[in-house]
Amino acid sequence: MIRLVALDIDGTLLDSSNRLSDGNAAAVREALARGTQVVLATSRWFHLARPTAESLGLTTPLICHNGALVRRPQDADARSGQELLHLRLDRDFAQQVAALGDRGRYMMFTTIDDVTYMRPQSKGPKRLPRDMRVSNYHAQAVAQAAPTAILIFGEEAVDETWGAFYERFGRTVNFSRNHSLAFPHYLSLTHAEADKGRALEMVCRELGVDPAEAMAIGDAEADVAMFSVVGCGIAMGNAPEAVREAASDVAPQNDEDGVAGAIRKYVLGE
What is residue 185's predicted lDDT score, i.e. its pLDDT? Predict the structure, then answer.
């Protein structure tokens, strides 16, 4: 019996156009109606993940930054936004990474508390949410406070960052290097203890669910940590081979409503 479903967002719940399909939304809502808990677990920052949770009517804690932050989206008891876990990067390390990104003009996102600084590949959007800032100088922001996470995109940028820092900091920082159809090359830098699996275990305890009665669905290397703690780990058909091999089963691709297929098979029993 599956009592909780943990869903990655990009490349999993959303299609390749970053849209939530009617099929996936309907399956999630049917699972909720039957009493199954649904939790989002993502590399996104809180304010980027929350709209997806709200569109589905989820009130469970959000797992963000690959497990560095666990935070409530909303709560009937006025505990909206309450943090259950928040692990920050060492500021000196983060400043070195930010400085390298500034020099290389990497496509990079640096989240510090409720603000995410971005350096897009192009000029970027004309309008941004209030929690986002366009910045070419992330090192200046990091000098003021330690970030929760730094996301770096692009094969060259990922390779250069990995080569410059992994040997020295690989044991004290979580270097999550991911490849998927949603984002071919990206690197998520978080606290060494940040882990989707550990964060999911925390959320299961919070919700009173045995992880053995949980199912996790994802498409990237960071999702394998969830597969290792739940009773049923499902890889998307668009996931890399190593992710598919680590899963109990493989769902159709994200553009084929793979999440709906997995929920209907394992939760709704169709």
Answer: 83
34 burial class (0-12, 13-18, 19+ CB within 10 angstroms)?
A: exposed
For residues 60 and 37, give the distance between their C-alpha atoms in angstroms, rounded to a whole number: 8
Q: Which are the contacts of 228, defined by CB distance < 8 A and separation ≥ 6?
A: 197, 246
For the chain, the distance separating the N- and C-terminal CA atoms, rounded to the nearest angstrom, is 14
- Where do the domains of the chain lie, and which CATH numbers do they carry? 4-86+194-266 (3.40.50.1000), 91-191 (3.30.1240.10)
Note the pTM of the prediction, 2 decimals: 0.92
Q: Which residues of the chain have pLDDT under 70?
A: 74-81, 121-126, 179-184
The two tokens of residue 104 are: 């290389």
- The dihedral formed by the CA atoms of 36, 20, 157 and 103, expressed in degrees to the nearest 10: -110
> How many CA atoms within 13 Å lie on the side-chain side of 131?
14
Question: What CA–CA distance (Å, rounded) separates 80 from 152?
Answer: 29
